[in-house]
């Protein structure tokens, strides 16, 4: 069973060569911690996004491991050096076959 | 004779009570002394041990920013930045963020490369309790650095019912 959800990337579409750009990546996800109980006392199983990766022209440049300590709808803001024009691919992987992919184009002058 | 021994007994009893009282105050004092309050919780310590594998951790280089007073522990904006030139020879390899008061101390781990440009990460975390949050960074030369920030949480995460 595979799941996916809405994701959003905020980053500049063009940059000067060598400039440091800021990327904001957010995914819609409850990030159920696995520490909460229902009113009837049943433990709600853990269901979180485990990893987030960012590839720049197919080379992995950034990776993050998430734990239940990350809030719902995980947002992560990080920086990358704009080296050349191309595609940035963002991938979220999680429990229960969760997978979400997003892409953004960048023009480097 | 009888009176005397009774008096003696009473005296020792009173002495003992006083001694016990003093001892209690001493132990209570030890519990609240700064050395104990600022000690990392055992679980967090274990997690840190696992990360560093016993290597020495130096203090500094890391700035961890969290609001000093948090009303809702479910979404706390956390910013961590490491002072590093981020060149091919000298960069930050990983940053681990650990909350000693959470049921699972690990919050997140990020893996950086020289292509990151800076070592600044912002995200939103859950905090279960008023606590100290630690950030541990491993540099490209293998050295570990740590920084921490303390916060007061009024409404805890992960206690509410659904």
Report on this model:
With 109 residues, chain A is mainly beta. Chain A has strands spanning 7-10, 14-15, 20-27, 49-56, 59-66, 75-81, 86-94, 99-108. Chain A is elongated and about 60 Å long. Chain B folds into two domains: 2-36; 40-155, SoxY domain (Immunoglobulin-like, Sandwich). Chain B has 162 residues and is an alpha+beta fold. Chain B is elongated, with a radius of gyration of 24 Å. Strand 6 (75-81) of chain A pairs antiparallel with strand 7 of chain B, so a sheet runs across the interface.
Features:
heterodimer; A: about 110 residues; mainly beta; Immunoglobulin-like; 5-stranded mixed beta sheet; 3-stranded antiparallel beta sheet; about 50% strand; elongated; B: about 160 residues; alpha+beta; 2 domains; 6-stranded mixed beta sheet; about 30% helix
The count of strands of chain A amounts to 8
What is the CATH C level class of the largest domain in chain B, in words?
Mainly Beta
Question: What is the quaternary state of this protein?
Answer: heterodimer
- Structural class of chain A comes to mainly beta
What Rg of chain A, in angstroms, do the CA atoms define? 16 Å
What is the CATH architecture assignment of chain A?
A: Sandwich
**What are the secondary-structure elements of chain A, in order, as H or E?**
EEEEEEEE
Could you give the order of strands across the largest sheet of chain A?
Answer: 2-8-7-4-5
Low-confidence runs of chain B (pLDDT<50, min 5 residues)?
Answer: 33-38
According to DSSP, the number of beta strands of chain B is 9
Order of helices and strands of chain B: HHHEEEEEEEEE
- The number of distinct structural domains of chain A comes to 1
**How would a crystallographer describe the biggest sheet of chain A?**
5 strands, mixed
The top level CATH class name of chain A: Mainly Beta
Rounded average pLDDT of chain A: 92
Largest sheet of chain B: 6 strands, mixed
């Amino acid at each position: 069973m595979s799941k996916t959800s809405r994701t959003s990337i905020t980053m500049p579409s063009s940059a000067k060569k060598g400039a440091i750009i800021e990327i904001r990546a957010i995914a819609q996800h409850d990030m159920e911690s696995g520490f909460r109980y229902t009113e009837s006392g049943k433990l709600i199983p853990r269901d979180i996004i485990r990893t987030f990766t960012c590839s720049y022209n197919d080379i992995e440049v950034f990776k993050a491991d998430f734990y239940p300590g990350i809030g719902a709808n995980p947002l992560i803001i990080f920086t990358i050096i704009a080296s050349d024009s191309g595609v940035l691919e963002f991938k979220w992987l999680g429990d229960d076959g969760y997978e979400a992919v997003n892409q953004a184009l960048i023009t480097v002058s | 004779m009888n009176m005397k021994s009774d008096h003696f007994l009473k005296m020792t009893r009173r002495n003992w009570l006083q001694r016990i009282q003093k001892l209690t105050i001493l132990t209570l004092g030890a519990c609240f002394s700064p050395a104990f309050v600022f000690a990392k919780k055992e679980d967090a310590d274990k997690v840190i041990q696992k990360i560093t594998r016993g290597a020495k951790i130096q203090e500094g280089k890391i700035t961890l920013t969290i609001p000093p007073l948090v009303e809702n522990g479910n979404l706390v904006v956390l910013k961590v930045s490491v002072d590093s030139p981020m060149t091919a020879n000298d960069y930050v390899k990983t940053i681990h963020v650990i909350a000693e008061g959470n049921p699972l101390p690990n919050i997140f781990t990020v893996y950086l490369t020289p292509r990151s440009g800076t070592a600044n990460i912002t995200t939103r975390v859950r905090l279960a309790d008023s606590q100290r949050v630690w950030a541990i960074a491993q540099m490209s030369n293998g050295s570990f650095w740590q920084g921490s920030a303390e916060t007061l949480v009024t409404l805890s995460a992960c206690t509410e019912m659904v």
